Amino acid sequence: MIISKSWFGENKNGKIQINSRIIYRELSPQIIEKLNQNLSVSHILNWMRHQTTEAFRTQYKKNLELGALNKVVGDWNEFIATSLLSEIVIDKNKNQGILCAVFSLPSSRLQKEGNNEVSSKFLSLFSNKEFTNKESLSKIAFLKNQIFLSSPDYIIVAINRDKFATTVQILLEQQLSAPDSFAVYDFFKGKLQAQDLKAVASLKTSNRPDRRYQPLFEAAMVKAMGYVLQQNWQYYMVTSKLSSADRTIFSTAVAPHGIALEQNFNLVDGTYLYNRKEDLVPLIESAIQQ
Q1: Closest CA to 250 of 233, 232, 269
Q2: pLDDT band for position 125 (50/70/90)?
């Protein structure tokens, strides 16, 4: 195995860090080969974990910290899922009237004072016109700078094919081979109408008890906005491991705005166990049917 020294580096505090994107790019030909062999994602991630551990031991003559490795495994899991989702929607776009796209968002950050852009990368997807009088998002226009939520892992949209067909297909092809790119988000930013958004999805290798509720907060915000705006936005959980606690919470949790309205609105619309490409096909099909 030929290993680039750029797999590892020092951060500003002088600590050794794992360059997850560089490792993924350099291993991508073998990753693609393994995916084409229909090997499971968990098998591929374990192989990448082993390659990285051995490379670190060779370079630094010591063992890699497990916590640091677990974080980058989460990154790799998302990159693989992005490639698989891109492949699925590319195939579907060849055979249906609407144009579907799935993509990740950059992390949401608070804007500096004087910056008029909303802090939420989710809301930044929508056209400014959508927030004007009597348009689809006008009911939350006065609140948009006070709506904070972390960027969901995936956005799924279905739009009029005549608008962007050629460009979107090219960008999805690029995303398939470069899943760490935000080029699709950059293209759609400020262009979407509320009705274009079909679903939001959270992707986790597993749901640690102390982090289980972060995606549920995202779900609560998305579903509350959807209710007020009369949009049937879906929220899906995608995970490689599903505990009995996860299954209970994700299938039965009530949306917070349902409590205020004394109605039992589901917070999560579907949970998908994911280990191969075919596991993600029902998620895309469910989203675009909305």
Answers
A1: 269
A2: very high
Question: Tens digits of per-residue pLDDT, 28-64?
Answer: 999 989 988 989 999 999 999 999 999 999 888 888 8
Closest CA to 277 of 4, 62, 18, 91: 91
pLDDT band at 210 (very low <50, low <70, confident <90, very high): confident
CA distance 103 to 253: 26
**What is the structure's pLDDT at 98?**
82
Whether pLDDT at 131 is above 70: yes
Give the 3-state DSSP-derived string for 15-33, with helices as H, strands as E and coil as C: CEEECHHHHHHHHHHHHHH
Nearest to 104 by CA among 123, 126, 81: 81
Angle between helix 161-177 and 66-93 (nearest 10): 140
Those residues with Cβ within 8 angstroms of residue 156's Cβ, 6 or more apart along the chain or in another chain? 100, 101, 102, 197, 198, 199, 200, 201, 284, 287, 288
The rounded Cα 119 to chain-centroid distance in angstroms is: 18
The answer to whether 277 touches 87, Cβ cutoff 8 Å, is: yes
pLDDT 10s digits, 107-117:
887 766 556 67
User: Is 157 in contact with 188 (CB distance < 8 Å)?
Assistant: yes
